[in-house]
Design brief:
251 residues, mainly alpha, two-stranded antiparallel sheet, elongated, binds zinc ion
Length: 251
């Protein structure tokens, strides 16, 4: 996971969600119990938050990678528009009690949306949104600032590198939030570890070639080109760049 620099301007289509959130607020005010149901107006319009404009904006922002695992999955599946704070309901842990309403007022909020692979979203995170103190869970926008989530927001204030580091191809937590994030999203799942190991092997091979060519005084232009290619593996555009940055192969 790397930090995602979110653009200030949201895709225009998300403005269509504003009256829907207003309707939910009004309905909740009139009858608080309705916020705990799946009936209208507490139904969500995926044609707004899941609009192609939103997806395209997130694809660009995230360099066509999953916000969580950094896998480039778009050649194989569509991917999900993921709500960092779940819109319909939330759970403190997987299989835990369902807490309604969810963060419905963030259903169409640009700052709450990410693009993720289906495994990170549907098989792992789903509606789980763990908090350090579950009694502080927000049921209004004003209370969100008091929450201390136990899952990293790649587009949030914290740099994921301050919480998760890589030992070779395997992510390791250096904080409690990092630990919970790895566990919840399955960032150390065997399929990911396998893909990362392959990529790390390519980077290591290129690193060794560059080092050897440099030592032998080989064509400096070729060495420079190979060095640039090596460094590109650590760029935001590159798959699993967080691992490469921790690898020691990039100066
Ligand atoms: Zn993923």
């Amino acid at each position: 996971m790397i930090r995602i620099a979110r653009t200030a301007s949201a895709p225009a289509i998300l403005a269509d969600g504003v009256p829907l959130v207003q309707a939910m607020n009004e309905a909740k005010k009139a009858n608080p119990a309705i916020a705990g149901t799946k009936t209208k107006p507490f139904k969500f319009d995926s044609s707004i938050y899941g609009h192609q404009d939103v997806k395209n904006a997130l694809k660009a922002l995230q360099h066509e990678k999953c916000a969580y695992c950094e896998g480039k999955f778009l050649a194989f599946c569509y991917g999900d528009i993921e709500h960092y704070r779940p819109k319909g309901y939330s759970q403190q842990k997987s299989g835990g009690k369902t807490i309604r309403p969810g963060y419905y007022w963030l259903a169409y909020d640009w700052n709450n949306l990410l693009l993720s692979c289906e495994l990170c979203n549907r098989a792992r995170k789903r509606n789980v949104f763990p908090l350090r103190d579950p009694t502080k869970r927000a049921d209004t926008p004003e209370k969100v600032a008091h929450e201390k989530p136990l899952i990293l927001d790649p587009a949030g204030e914290d740099d994921p590198h301050d919480h998760i580091r890589f030992a070779s191809n395997v992510p390791e937590a250096i904080t409690l939030v990092g630990k919970q994030t790895i566990a919840l999203l399955g960032l150390d799942r065997s399929e990911l570890n396998g893909l990362r190991l392959t990529r790390l092997g390519h980077v290591e091979a290129l690193y060794n070639v560059v080092r050897l060519a440099d030592k032998l005084g080989e064509d400096t232009t070729l060495v420079a080109e190979a060095t640039a290619k090596l460094q590109a593996f650590a760029s935001d555009h590159s798959e699993f760049s967080a691992m490469i940055r921790d690898s020691g192969y990039i100066s």
